[in-house]
Specification:
By secondary structure, this protein is an alpha+beta fold. The chain has helices at residues 51-63, 84-89, 128-134, 137-152, and strands at 7-16, 25-31, 38-39, 42-44, 68-73, 78-81, 95-105, 120-127. 26% of the residues are buried.
Amino acid sequence: MSKKDLYRPNVAMIILSNNYPDKKEIFIAQRNDLSDVWQFPQGGIDEGEEVQEALFREMKEEIGTKKAKIIAEYPEWISYDFPPKIAKKMKPYTGQKQRYFLLKLKKSAKIDIDTKHPEFSAYKFVKVKDALSLSASFKKDVYKKVIKYFKKEGYL
């Protein structure tokens, strides 16, 4: 297995409330398996699955809706390494390579984190700076880079 194969292909999403652009508040959820760890929804891309297909499947699996519109996409894959404790559970992967999307919820979207396989115990919409202060330390650099890009492009 090559080094690039050690990173699990993944989609990740920064979800804006349906009040965007009037209010720039983003969705963040608390993991149910790690105490006080908040993150953006994300998930693996299945073999043969298109990236946007995985995006909306993961959105439905994690927050109970796929009623959203893509506003923008981060222009390249971005990766991070798992901390040792998580890496043990994710073998053979040592980290994830992700495609990030910025989405806006449609007015008709109803969030429901009590899904078939719940990953989150709570969620909220927060200001961008608050999302960074709540996020897991090993994801913070990726979050900063992606948010900086979407800000520079005028979306956040």
